[in-house]
Amino acid sequence: MVKIVEQSIETSELIDSVVSPGAGGIDIFLGTTRNTSKGKDVLTLYYEAYVPMALKLMGEIEREVRERWKISAITIIHRIGEVPVTEASVGIAVAAPHRKEAFEACRYAIDELKRRVPIWKKEVYKDGAVWVENAEALMKDGGSGEGKRN
Amino acid sequence: MPSQSILITVRLFASAKEVAKLSETKVELPIASRAGVVLDHLSDSYPAMTKLRPFIRLAVNEAYVDSDFTLHDGDEVAVLPPVSGG
């Protein structure tokens, strides 16, 4: 299941959404708002998404995960709007018969989300705000931005 | 004129939206225009877009495309700065 929400990501709901009798483990990743970025104090984060395309690409990632690993269930949730310090902007839960698959699939899902899903984060500081970009963001030439910017 | 031109919806996000002070607009283009033409238009109308342009990815109807992708009447072109979800 993939979802974009404007409210808090409830970890209990995230877990409940993947609980399965065939699963031997559930791996959870939560991306949370940190109060610093490159030496600056971050007051809060603001997220924006191209919602229909973001949902499509999150669904594409879900399909890829299911093709690559033997998992029982996966949920990918991204929050948009303001996400205050300590709160989660993204939550991924993967249930699988064995932990290796759960860990690997969860990592793949967050890495790919950060690379290609059209969602943007604005860091708000005391003295201004900046749209940031992920080091691994898919760039125009089809490669990643790693080493080119930042 | 309808057969000579196509009408495209352009959507802008994040830094692109802020720079152009525009979230959505309609653009009339010659038939068989390539997606990259949308960025030419935006850079002409909003010079501040020029700096951002090398880093913009385009999507047509919610799928990433290259700038030489051929547009059709009614297409939605999205102007996407490098993503920063997660």
Describe the protein's architecture and organization.
The complex is a heterodimer of chains A (150) and B (86). Chain A contains three helices and ten strands; from the N terminus they run βαββββαβββαββ. In chain A, strands 1-6-8-2 form a four-stranded mixed sheet. A four-stranded antiparallel sheet of chain A has the order 7-5-9-10, with no helix packed on it. Chain A has 150 residues and is α+β, with helices and mostly antiparallel strands. Chain A is 28% helix and 35% strand. Chain B is built from three helices and five strands, in the order E-H-E-H-H-E-E-E. The mean pLDDT of chain B is 95. Chain B is 24% helix and 31% strand. Chain B has 86 residues and is of the alpha+beta class. The longest helix of chain B has 10 residues, at 36-45. The N and C termini of chain B lie far apart (45 Å). Chain B has helices at 14-20, 36-45, 49-52, and strands at residues 5-12, 24-30, 57-60, 63-65, 76-80. The chains are: A alpha+beta (150), B alpha+beta (86). The A-B interface holds A 31, 47-50, 52-54, 56, 78, 89-90, 110, 113-122, 131-134, 137-140, 145, 149 and B 11, 13-15, 18, 54-57, 59, 62-64, 67, 78, 80-86.
